[in-house]
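Hey,

The postdoc asked me to send both predictions to you directly instead of through the lab channel. I've kept everything plain text so nothing gets mangled by the mail client. Protein one:
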Amino acid sequence: MDSTVPLSTASWRSVLTLLRSAFRPPRLLLMLAVATSLAALFSPHFATSFVSILARTVFVGLALLLAYDVAGRWPQRWLPRWVVQLLAIVLTAPVATLLAYLWMAGGSVLRVLEHEGMVWGFIKITVWAMALGLVLALGALYRERDAQARAQELSFALERSQLEKQALDARLRLLHAQIEPHFLFNTLANVQQLVESGSPRAAPVLQSLIAYLRAAVPTLSNESATLGNEMALVKAYLELMRMRMPDRLAFSVSVPPELAVLRFPPMALLTLVENAVRHGIDPSESGGNIRVEAREQAGIVEVMVADSGMGMRETATPGTGLNNLRERLRAFFGDAAELQLSDQPPHGLSAVIVFPKT
């Protein structure tokens, strides 16, 4: 009965994987270059031909490559893997050289030992193979350690980036939660004033508010909002405010089509427009005009809200809405974004959101 057990498909695949790993083209080319150099160095001192010497050095080189790769897969229990790989080089060099000489001597150890030239050849090839093998192995280990360090650094950087993104998303959600009630309550307070004063405009304004909220509320937390969406909401809001004070509020809203598709934080522009109405137009007896427009120059986008109302008081301090807006702009666009406030001659205020076009 045949007692041999054929290798399974999985075993053959493992062997092929090992051979592909050990004899990668860059390694083979380096080994052939070193083996050829050694054969050329030994040729004047050996009685055999250059081809015979080259065959031995190539065989030893292939054995060292295989031993180095097999040792690299050895489990780390008592010794570090790099120590096992260096020991594999030291042990494989004499064994592989001896096998090469036994093949030349027809498998006779005595013939090798009795032939002085073979003994010296064995010693020379063994010493050179061991020395060069250790040098090249140390170089490969250093490169592997350097590659592992870079990979670990990249992994840490990726993990840090993911954590920063999670923190940024959490901060944006918090800022949204602060801004949405702020806007909604201010708008409802305006409607309440109309109702309490018995104004006949209360019902139409309330209907417009309901229609506006139906369109606006689903977009408050929309992370893919665009500048065009924000301009549309601003226009609807100003239409609502003009119904409340038709004789005191005029406005214009314009955005170029190429800028309307840019990503823009939801409610950011509406915060400025609401401030213009509440602090600029409302307190003024004659009312005023609000101009909302976007423009781009040299890759920088400017979104402006300018009003001709009361202007900025010297004692005024930034409120929660503007502080949150600055935080949201920084979180959304990075440090390159900013909010600029300035007086609007002859009276009024200009607020400009500046960010890079991406």
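Protein two:
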Amino acid sequence: MSILPIDTGRYGTPEMRRIFDEENRLQLMLEVEAALAWAHSQVGGIPRKDAEKIIEMASTKHVKLSRVKEIEREIKHDVMALVQALAEVCGSSGAYVHLGATSSDILDTATALQLKEALKLIEQRLDGLERVLVQGAERYKKTMMMGRTHGQHALPTTLGFKFAVWTREIARHVQRLHECGERLLVGKMSGAVGTQAGFGPQALKIQELVMERLGVKPADISTQIVQRDRYAELICLFAMIASTLDNIATEIRELQRPEIGEVFEPFEKEKQVGSSTMPHKRNPIICERISGLAKVMRSFVMPALENIPTWHERDLTQSSAERFIIPEACILTDYILVLMTNVLTGLQVNEKRMLKNMKLTQGRMMSEAVMLALARKGMNRQKAHELIRGLAIKSDVEKRPFKEVLVEDDTVQKMLSEKEIDEALNPRNYLGTATKQVGLVVKKTKQERRARGLAD
């Protein structure tokens, strides 16, 4: 019976869920056992024919998940259940299964194999999202809209500028993922306390051979477990990625409010239902889902950090937590990356509404431009600020266009012509380097993508 929404299929992509399903986990653990037997045979530790038999039978075609669970119910140990199930199907060669190893050698190395697959998929998702953001930055580079601080009208900006800011944030996550992967993707054959005593004089060679066969690096040194700072770094990175997506989703949700109405997440007009009782509703449910799951992602950080401390060479306090947080963190990060890519790909933009909203303050949003125009004419900057502040308040209180109030003021009249006032009040003249910055971001990001072997 399915209980959690990942299990029911509500959340998660099939590709990522497959990586963490029980069958795949069992197969990877069997592959670690097979690699260990092979490595032993390479250094003369066990007969080659026995290693070949173990390799042949180390598959879920022969070692059934149901049998492993049956044994585990009896002996209350998951890895030993796997060892016994594999040994059963290997006949006399089963005597060499798990030789010298401890449970964590198999568990942690199998986790590295899972994470190797997971990171590859998440990297693809980040690459895809980055591409969509670059396209948005280019497309909306000159699409003027109201910039807001504290939720209030501030200065004009462009939608492309927002996309460019998000682009570089995702680009940094791509860099972090590569750096994290270098530290994360390690396995080990270190034995009960890390000394490799059970593997004999060829222990280091055995570990090297196992990891070479599996395609991950050996840990520099470990106790009975791979140290959990590696996993904590990954979970913290995933929480950061989720928070970036939450930030983008929150912006879209705010801008979709009817009072603003500037951008909208995709909505299937033919069939999609917004509310069970209000037929008119068009809710930003995908962005809300992203924000909601980002909360869950951030909650994984604490147990990930708590898993770093262990008693002596290891205890079991991190094990139960990791059975939740590692699969769920990977599955949810992958899922919300797909959701956000789809939202931005189908984002609906109302440019007319953007321009209309810029007029709500009757020109007062350009107060800084007017103040600086006065300063350039010789007025003390602080005096100019106080003058324009007072005139802006007067415009607001009297509900009159800012220009009317400006041209009536004797001090402003003496220093600025009506043409100069018009120029200062034109938002197109006050975008600064916005479009140039967008261009630089697009150029840099495309260069980085080409260096990673990706198309623009």
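Summary for protein two, as requested: The longest strand covers residues 152-158.

Thanks,
C.
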